[in-house]
Specification:
The protein is 37% helix and 11% strand. It is built from five helices and six strands; from the N terminus they run H-H-E-H-E-E-H-E-E-H-E. With 175 residues, the chain is α+β, with helices and mostly antiparallel strands. The model has no long low-confidence stretch (mean pLDDT 88).
């Protein structure tokens, strides 16, 4: 077990050296969605994971953990607050959270993780800015294909297992 700086170059190098890389796709932005009545995954504008997988030539493995949004409550001032923007700027989470007894102890809720099938990708290097249009198109098309498959996989995982977890009333929302 270890950690490396969260850069694209480090992620590709680690994967190519045989390490498994786990990524929370919505990062800091997802924290500010924890109080939403539905489950929110901030992923629509995030394409770095696809670029890493393509360059490393490894499949993407989607998983969803039910119960994580019930472990803590959080406050950051609501809409219009500067905390989400400051969190992104400082690359750290700036918010107040609490669990049992108003302390930073997680609520006792079951956590259940479900996994999708590996989504293969074509290995290629990211084209340079002055690359021929065909290379750029192939790169962009592979990213689009991966995003479509990843979103479909998350949707299927969530909808297939949400009733068993006891949250059949919830929807999965992509932002």
């Amino acid at each position: 077990m270890g950690a490396v700086s969260a850069t694209k170059a480090n992620a590709v190098k680690s994967i190519q050296n045989g390490f498994i890389s786990g990524v929370s796709p919505d990062g800091i932005a997802g924290i500010f969605e924890v109080n939403d009545p539905d489950e929110v995954l901030v992923i629509l504008e995030r394409r770095g994971i696809y670029k890493v997988a393509i360059e490393a030539g490894v499949p993407i493995m989607c998983s969803w953990t039910f119960g994580t949004t019930q472990t803590f409550s959080a406050s950051w001032g609501g809409k219009g607050s500067l905390l989400p923007e400051l969190s992104r700027m400082f690359r750290t989470s700036l918010f107040v959270f609490w669990g049992r007894f108003g302390l930073p102890i997680p609520m006792r809720v079951p956590l259940t993780t479900v996994f999708g099938y590996p989504i293969p990708c074509k290995q290629m290097s990211e084209p340079k800015k002055d690359a021929d249009p065909a290379s750029r198109r192939a790169w962009d098309q592979e990213i689009e294909r991966l995003q479509e498959e990843v979103l479909a996989t998350y949707t299927n995982l969530f909808n297939k297992h949400k009733e068993a977890y006891g949250c059949k009333h919830k929807k999965l929302v992509f932002k």
